């Protein structure tokens, strides 16, 4: 994903803009990371350079939790504990 895409992205749930970007791996483009909506506290993964801005009901809980665990040392605590639709506190909700 190119960084300049952040200029036009809004949360698909509440339409909030701007969103926060956390990059875990970057080459010419962002390979892996998360996009966070500071209004509703939802995170959207970036995998293989593609942002996955899916509604909650189309998300894969196992994949999202795996991503949170893999990068938990650099993901903001607000996402690890209270992120939507899934988080590592066990309070997974939509």
* Helix proportion: 10-25%
Strand line-up across the major sheet:
1-2-3-4
Low-confidence runs (pLDDT<50, min 5 residues)? none
Percentage of β-strand residues: 15-25%
Number of domains: 1
The total of beta strands comes to 4
Order of helices and strands: EEEEHH
How many H/I helical runs? 2
| General form | globular
Mean pLDDT: 94
Q: Tell me about the largest β-sheet.
A: 4 strands, antiparallel
Distance between the termini: 26 Å
Secondary-structure content class: alpha+beta
What is the gyration radius calculated from CA atoms? 12 Å
In short:
The protein has one domain (3-82).
Write the SSE topology.
Blueprint: E1 20-26, E2 30-36, E3 43-47, E4 50-51, H1 61-70, H2 77-82
Antiparallel strand pairs: 1-2, 2-3, 3-4
């Amino acid at each position: 994903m190119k960084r300049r895409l952040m200029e036009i992205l809004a949360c698909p749930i509440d339409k909030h803009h701007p969103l926060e970007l956390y990059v875990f791996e970057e080459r010419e483009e962002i390979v892996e990371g998360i996009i966070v909506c500071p209004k509703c506290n939802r995170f959207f993964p970036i995998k293989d350079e593609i942002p996955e801005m899916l509604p909650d009901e189309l998300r894969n809980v196992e994949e999202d939790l795996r991503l949170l665990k893999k990068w938990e040392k650099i993901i903001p605590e607000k996402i690890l504990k209270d992120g939507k639709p899934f988080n590592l506190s066990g309070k997974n909700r939509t």
